Amino acid sequence: xxxxxxxxxxxxxxxxxxxxxxxxxxxxxxxxxxxxxxxxxxxxxxxxxxxxxxxxxxxxxxxxxxxxxxxxxxxxxxxxxxxxxxxxxxxxxxxxxxxxxxxxxxxxxxxxxxxxxxxxxxxxxxxxxxxxxxxxxxxxxxxxxxxxxxxxxxxxxxxxxxxxxxxxxxxxxxxxxxxxxxxxxxxxxxxxxxxxxxxxxxxxxxxxxxxxxxxxxxxxxxxxxxxxxxxxxxxxxxxxxxxxxxxxxxxxxxxxxxxxxxxxxxxxxxxxxxxxxxxxxxxxxxxxxxxxxxxxxxxxxx
Length: 302
Prior knowledge:
Shape: globular
Distance between the termini: 24 Å
CATH superfamily: Spore Coat Polysaccharide Biosynthesis Protein SpsA, Chain A
Order of helices and strands: EHHEHEHEEHEEEEEEHHEEH
Low-confidence stretches: none
Number of domains: 1
Largest sheet: 11 strands, mixed
Mean pLDDT: 92
Number of helices: 8
Strand content: 25-35%
CATH class: Alpha Beta
Structural class: alpha/beta
Helix content: 25-40%
């Protein structure tokens, strides 16, 4: 039985943190958030990790992060490069901004030949999401164009220190993903949760809505679709300096054109992210609780 691969979007880590050395540990023995994701993926049955990084952070990334998994799980690398473009397209002069998460996943096309999950490097997803995706990926047909997404309960993804943006998922009667609508400024106030929709209108939420946190399950069939959609994107917006080809946009296009169906899996775990600097103590405390409950060992490693 082929084990699924975990693809980690890590190309933005250096720029987001001002250098890899600034990545804050959150575990009791210096563990990063990504260490917990790799740990969860490994115990869920994933057989390999592919980190998508930039060439300019390769040395630091391999030394400070990739080396942590030696002897635990095989690690490979793919590189998001501004000049890695399909169809004879070239990077416009002056372009320094990455092409977006859809392009980042496409960059892994030569490193992944089996069903795979995609996650962000700096988000804590919890054990059950990886178990749900691993089960789905093992059972899916490797050549299928049907995919999956692991969503989270909205109220379990909010910050106590400011508002957040979230993609609210809608499903059809079969539980398949119909749409992910981006909402901004979501937060709690006076016991209520509210935010703004794409029209700028205030929307109230119950809190049990399913939101997308960029945790997906795919087969290698995705790469050909991404290449086609990215080529279309380049023909329309490739000369712009700041346009981005986002993964959720690509999946939405595939759903609406009936090329793919996306199963919505639902993790009941809390999602953690350091959206605000003040979030870090809460993440550290939450991990401490999970460790005391026996969900994680005190020290991750071999």
